[in-house]
Amino acid sequence: MRGREVMASGPPQALLFAVGVLCIVGGSDLKFQVIVRGLAGPVPTCERTASDDVPLGTLASSRLDIPARHAPSPAGLDTGLLLLRLALGLTMAAHGAQKLFGWFGGPGLDGTGQFFTMSGYPAGRTMAVVAGLSETLGGLGLVVGLLTPLAAAALVGTMINALAVKWGGGFFAPKGVEYELLLTAGAAALALTGPGRYAVDRLLPGLRSPRTVHGVIALVLGVVLAGGVLMVRR
Q1: Residues 6 or more apart from 189 whose CB is under 8 A from it?
Q2: At 44, is the secondary structure helix, strand, or coil?
Q3: What DSSP element (H or E) covers 94?
Q4: pTM of this prediction?
């Protein structure tokens, strides 16, 4: 008789603990309901609530009163992208100005055209114009954040040809490809991430919210065009 009274007074503490652990691990809140049939005391049951949308086995921080980690600052991310755009864009635009106008101690169209001819490209002067325009316009596009995926893809295509010319000289500068590889990676990253908030693209309806697919399409186009140019190289 006394055993029945103990059972009726509520479930054992071990059962409460076990069900509580299963509820927390499963991502549900532990709630107590009075079961009329058979037991008079509260019986632990697991019920899912709207706040339980967490992966299985994950403890919700709000349930354990653990302060959530601070989210990354959007202003910091946008400033970082702006810094990368300025550094990469101005560098490439300066290289383009060297080829087109002979600025900053560059060889100009004649000298650049001779280099392209010696590197196996037909119509060296025309190739110098194409490379100079790609670097100048692509670099300035990154600086102001205008048509960022296409601007970055233009630089990637130019750098692919530069990598092909210098390939075989090792990795480290001055004969290696580390510098060209770094520029290629930076331009490809900006094509995929977008320019950030501080860009002209924010004023264009189609590019206001950057999408990864835009960057992927632009990069594919740049790689295909670069491959086509490499095919005519002797």
Answers
A1: 84
A2: strand
A3: helix 74-101
A4: 0.70
